[in-house]
């Protein structure tokens, strides 16, 4: 059994919070290789995570959740990523939807979402598109139809969609206004496909969702698509926390395999057993250090997001909310390239400890690099360094692309009946 000194728990109560779900996560990790080899989707694991409350971490206990702050929350994401980054990523949209409603003022739509997700229903992602649309516009359209709407379009990277009862999706009105809504995955005209063909994150259900004349009820539509000020940082840090979890499992699995190894590399090793070889131990030490540092970086960035979140609850000035968005993003951006580089390094140098045995398919050690590289490609890290440098040189915060209700293109979207 591997021995590690981890970065300190985020709060004194964290171990009591984490203890009940750790046996489940260890089972998830133990079955990760077989699950990927057979492409068995995570339906039973998602169901158990839901039962344990891992899908409702930021909701209050009265709302059916665990009431975690953001530092505790991201510590849990690290543990999810260590168990299986597919599980962590499949719950990312759910976490973001909950963050939306715990941050926004109370209202009928928030009450609806809290009631649904607090009772155990899940939300998958329905934001990204391929083709001519960019990350600031959509080709998916929502048109008035009687007392409700008709939704038509196609989404990709619908992470978690196959496990969810809702897709948290975005569309444009005929007037070009951005609209957000929660669409049931079993509504007529909704099709969710398991067609993600990436070499990593193969079980996170990140394929295509198709909307064909889907009748959308007014209560599913968010009155305006305001995003919480720390949204950009939140969604990026979720990936970085998952990467930190991968680093932790790399260190653990490599150490366990080295300890169990009864031979060494003939003619070049310093000792008869690999576990006694100082050069092998040096690599293990590097892997453990990477796991420590990446976890510490995530928790520190989460502390910054928690401060941004706390201020946002009392700030109504649009300029200050934009500034908070930039501040939150920079807290996270300063971890992105460093953590990504370290985890990709760990996923490569681990093979130096085991020789050709490391390539055995049954170990599944290649999954760590594939999953880490795939996660790191979702939001290209080169842009984060540029934003950090711009702030360092000129004091200019990153531009926010978060829609606000005060923006002309996203003002409150009322139900309008035809004719």
Automatic annotation (TrEMBL):
Swiss-Prot/TrEMBL GO biological process terms: L-leucine catabolic process
Catalytic activity: dibenzothiophene + FMNH2 + O2 = dibenzothiophene 5-oxide + FMN + H2O + H(+); dibenzothiophene + 2 FMNH2 + 2 O2 = dibenzothiophene 5,5-dioxide + 2 FMN + 2 H2O + 2 H(+); dibenzothiophene 5-oxide + FMNH2 + O2 = dibenzothiophene 5,5-dioxide + FMN + H2O + H(+)
Principal EC category: oxidoreductase
Keywords: Flavoprotein, FMN, Monooxygenase, Nucleotide-binding, Oxidoreductase
Major localisation: cytoplasm
Residue ranges of domain Acyl-CoA dehydrogenase C-terminal in the record: 241-378
EC number: 1.14.14.21
Pfam family, one: Acyl-CoA_dh_M
Pathway in which the depicted protein is active: Sulfur metabolism; dibenzothiophene degradation
SUPFAM superfamilies from the UniProt entry: Acyl-CoA dehydrogenase C-terminal domain-like (SSF47203), Acyl-CoA dehydrogenase NM domain-like (SSF56645)
Acyl-CoA dehydrogenase/oxidase N-terminal domain boundaries: 15-98
Coiled-coil ranges per UniProt: none
UniProt xrefs under PANTHER family: ACYL-COA DEHYDROGENASE, ISOVALERYL-COA DEHYDROGENASE, MITOCHONDRIAL-RELATED
Protein name according to UniProt: Dibenzothiophene monooxygenase
Species per Swiss-Prot/TrEMBL record: Paracoccus aminophilus JCM 7686
């Amino acid at each position: 059994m591997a021995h590690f000194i981890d970065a300190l728990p985020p709060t004194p109560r964290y171990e009591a919070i984490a203890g009940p779900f750790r046996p489940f996560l260890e089972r998830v990790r133990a079955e990760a290789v077989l699950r990927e080899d057979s492409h068995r989707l995570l339906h039973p694991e998602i169901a158990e995570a839901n039962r344990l409350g891992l899908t409702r971490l930021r909701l209050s206990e009265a709302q059916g959740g665990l009431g975690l702050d953001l530092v505790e929350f991201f510590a849990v994401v690290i543990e999810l990523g260590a168990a299986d980054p597919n599980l962590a990523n499949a719950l990312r949209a759910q976490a973001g939807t909950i963050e939306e409603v715990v941050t926004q003022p109370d209202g009928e739509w928030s009450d609806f979402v809290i009631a649904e997700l607090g009772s155990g229903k899940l939300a998958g992602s329905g934001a990204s598109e391929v083709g001519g649309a960019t990350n600031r516009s959509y080709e998916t359209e929502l048109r008035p139809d009687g007392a409700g709407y008709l939704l038509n379009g196609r989404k990709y990277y619908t992470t978690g969609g196959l496990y969810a009862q809702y897709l948290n999706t975005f569309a444009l009105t005929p007037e070009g206004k951005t609209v957000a809504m929660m669409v049931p995955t079993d509504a007529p005209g909704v099709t969710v496909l398991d067609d993600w063909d990436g070499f990593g994150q193969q079980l996170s259900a990140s394929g295509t969702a198709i909307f064909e004349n889907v009748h959308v009820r007014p209560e599913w539509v968010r009155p305006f698509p305001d995003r919480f000020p720390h949204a950009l940082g939140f969604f990026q840090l979720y990936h970085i926390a998952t990467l930190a979890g991968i680093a932790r499992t790399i260190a653990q699995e490599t150490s366990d395999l080295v300890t169990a190894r009864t031979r060494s590399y003939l003619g070049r090793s310093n000792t008869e057993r690999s576990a006694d070889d100082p050069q092998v131990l040096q690599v293990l030490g590097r892997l453990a250090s990477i796991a420590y540092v990446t976890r510490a970086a995530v928790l520190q960035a989460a502390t910054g997001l928690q401060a941004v979140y706390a201020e946002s609850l009392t700030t109504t000035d649009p300029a200050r909310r934009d500034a908070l968005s930039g501040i939150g993003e920079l807290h996270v951006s300063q971890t992105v390239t460093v953590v990504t580089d370290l985890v990709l390094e760990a996923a490569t140098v681990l093979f130096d400890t085991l020789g050709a045995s490391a390539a055995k398919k049954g170990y599944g050690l290649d999954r760590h690099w594939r999953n880490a590289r795939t996660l790191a490609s979702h939001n290209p890290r080169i842009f984060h360094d540029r934003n950090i440098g711009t702030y360092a040189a000129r004091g200019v915060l990153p531009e926010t692309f978060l829609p606000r209700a005060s923006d002309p293109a996203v003002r409150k979207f009322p139900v309008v009946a035809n004719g």
